Structure formats: structure tokens, C-alpha cells
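FAQ: What does the model actually see?

It sees only this:
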Amino acid sequence: MWDETGQDYAMFVKELGNLRTRADGAWSREEAFDVHMAIGRALYEHQLFKEVLVSFKRACELQPVDVRPHLRAGNCLYALGRHSEAKGEFTLALEAAENGGNQWGYLLPQIHVNLGIALEAEGMVINACEHYREAAILCPTHFRALKLLGSALFGVGGYKAAVKALEEAIFLKADYADAHCDMASALHAIGDDEKAVQVFQQALDLKPGHVDALYNMGGLYMEMSRYQRASEMYTRVLAVSPNHWRAEPNKAVALLGAGETEEALKITNRVELHDAVSHLKQLQRKKIKTNGGVNGEGAFNIVETSKFKRVADRTSLRQELSIALEIRAFQRVTRLTRCDVELLKKEMANDFPVSYSGSGAPEKSIRKAALEIILRKLLDFLKPDQGAVKAINEKIMMFLDESGSCRVDLGMFFAVLAPICGGSPEKRKQVAYDALLWRPASEGSSKIRKADALHYIKSLRAIYIPTRGLVKLESGDRTRHGNYACSVCRYPIIGSPFKEMKSHFSLCNQCYSEGKVRPSFKLEGYRFKEYASEAEAMKR
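And it is asked to produce this:
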């Protein structure tokens, strides 16, 4: 590493400048280009990226249609963390290669891979998938492209396709530990936990110190309630990476689950232990569905829907509240409440070409990669690594892309998205209506076609399952009700409290929606009243 303020570095830069001056004085542009490329390659080996960039940029000026300096400049910019500029250079390299005929065909797969990596760094994972897939098509033996494709598909929720791509990568390179690790995670995502454990173990056999495999395997063992094994995995993570900030509290969770409370106290402080206990309780609540807790602690019974009665019509139906809570959770993950619905209307003012579906009906369809760009613009406050686009892809885009063509009807997409964006209910309904009129089949008309309306309602039911309780939930789900706690989960009640009128116990909206009651409150039927305000809650 150079001290850039030192005399040696200043002398080096001066001599480097002299070399570049001599290169520019070469008898031909071709010779000058070759020298600048040679200087750049030599500097790159020593990771002097700022100086490297000067050489490759100069080479780009000398030979604008040559792919190599753009590709190398992109690599350099990526190494400097300037991902957007790297994407620009890789795009220029791709354009030059595609316009250069067969001359640059051998570099096309690598350009697609590098461009995909730069896009992923900006959070454009669906776009990255397109380039990894293209690289794999151009070079079917490109195992790294297949691995990156599988990892990216996993990142946007395409778990089955991810498993397939990662299987291909492992077939081509059997000792690819990273591919084994990501494949195990994808297998876990589709519910094949036993096979996931085997594949994680294969990754560790290939690379015993693989931190991601160790950490993810620890998480898998936690979900399987194999706490001792989970603790062993996290111990191995800390042995390889002592500063792994997530492994230590997770190890405390595992030790607590295994009943080794004293050991958990030794490795973590009070705040971390509190977080660990909270996480463990969440895992236990997922696991225990009947009265199986110690002395009834943490236990509950699941009561069938017909036994939950309402005292008044304004008390939410249990099943409706359950749906509303799921929608609200989706809004939180996607941050769509921070996206004003008027922004969708502005997007509809843009000119999108009309295409034709398999049935011959006209529609303004768009590739999912292009739709991801629109989503990133709508949610411009998101960081690259947040999972909003993944959640939208899993829940909405995959449903609307029934044919698997990677294209989505944009009008229907906006209409489905509008109800859960920010803005008043009236505005959201209006934008959904406008989006359906904006579709080519209804454009110019003041009425939505009956077939489109039915298709829209069917889509809403399939994606969200409509509920009349969502708007009420939106306005009250942050309200705290004194010091009252739910009788099942013991957490303070935030949002709508539900009081059982005979036994006088209260449930939070989550436990009420799931039909949970403590075994000590065993009744033939339950009658609940919902309190919409803190004042009403205090009266109970």
C-alpha cells in the first residue's frame, strides 16, 4: 500500500506521467493504445486502481470501438466501489462487442457476467438475472455464470429455478463450495430441509471454513429446533470470523434453546441476551400449537373459526383481520406506504408500446427487468440490499407472469399495486380505476370492460384476498393501549385489542387472527369485542 502523501509516491506518479507522455508520442494510435493498455494491466496487478483508470480511459479515447479498455475500466471502477460508473462502462463494452461482429464474441459472456455483478451491487437483481442467463446461453460451460444466476434467482424469490441453475453449476464444477451453499439455502426455501442439511455439509466438506455455509446451517438447525447443533455451527463461525456480529447473539439463542442459560450469559451482554430470548420465543411460538409448554407457559390452543363470535358488527372478523395483517406485513416489507399512489399515475403518462398476448389481446406489457427499473424509481429511498423488489416479485409479478414469459401487463400491475400504496383510500381507488382504463382494451373509454373488471378482482383475490379491514388497520395499528398485554404472547397490545366478554382476557390482533387462546380459558365458544380507541380499552 502506497502512502499517497509521501515522496516515493509523488516520484512514482511523476515517472508514470512521463511514461504516458511517451506513449502518447508513439508513431501510431494503435501503438499508443497498446502501451496504455500494458501500463493499465501492470498497475491493475498492484491494485493501483486510480492510476489504472487513467490508463484505460486514455485507451478508450484512442480506440472507442475496442471492447477491452471499457471492460477493464469497468472492473477498475467496480473495485473502487463506483458501481454505477462501472455499469456504464460495461454497457459500453457490451454495445461495442455486439456491434463488432464475431471479433469480440469470446468476451461477450464475461461482459454479461460483469454487468450483472454491477447491477446486483445497485440492487437491480432481476436485471442481473437477464445478463447471467445470457452469459450461460452464450457459453453453456460457464459455471460461474450459472452460479451467479442461481444466487440472483434466489435473491428475487425464484427458488425452484435457483436450484436448477445451481445444480447445473455444480454439475460443471463439482468442487464449487459457494454453489453448494446457495443451493442448500434455496432447498431450505422450498421446504426440503433434510436435503438442505446434506448440501450444506457438502459445502463444508469442500471448504471447512466456509462462513456463509456455517452460519446458514446454524440458522437451519435453529428452525429445526436442533439447538445444540446450531450452537456448534455458530461456534465454528466465530472461530473463523471472531468479529461476525450476528453469530454471537445467535449462538446465545441456540444455547438458551438447548437449556444452557449460564453459557449464554457468558458470551453476551444483557441487551443481546434480551434480543436472543425474544427471538427464541418467536421460534417457540411458531412450533407450539397445542398446550405443550412447561406449566402452560408459552402454550396455547388453536380454536376453530366457528367458535369465535363477535359481540358487535364493528368487531373485525377473525379471518378478515388475518388477511389484513398479512397485507400490512407486505406493505412494511415493500415500503409501499412510502410510495405515493400519484407516482403511479405519473408513470402512466409515459409512452409504453402496445404488445399482444398469447390470446391476441392488446396490452402494454413490459419485461420484468424493465419493470424493476420503474420500481426502483418509485422506491428511490431504498438501499440496494433491501428485499422490497423481491417481495413484490414473489407476490405480484410472478402471479401476473402466468405464462413464464418474463413479461407483465403494466396496466394490471399498476391497478394491483395502487391499493397498497400511500395516499387516501379515495385516491388509491381512483388510480386503480385509471390504470384499468389505461390498458389498450379500455383506452379512450370511460368504462372498464366487464372481462377486465373480473380479471382484476380475480387477481386481487389471488394476490391479497380482499378485506374490508385494511383501512381501519392502517389507521390504528400503531396505537398503544396502556400497559395491557396479550394473554397468549404476553407482548404489549399495539393496534386493536380484542376482549373476550365472559372470561375477560384480551388478545392482540395477531393472536386473535390466528385463533389462539391459553389452555386455561377453555370454553365451548368465545365472544369478542374489539376496542378501537385507548379510551374504550381502558373501560374494560
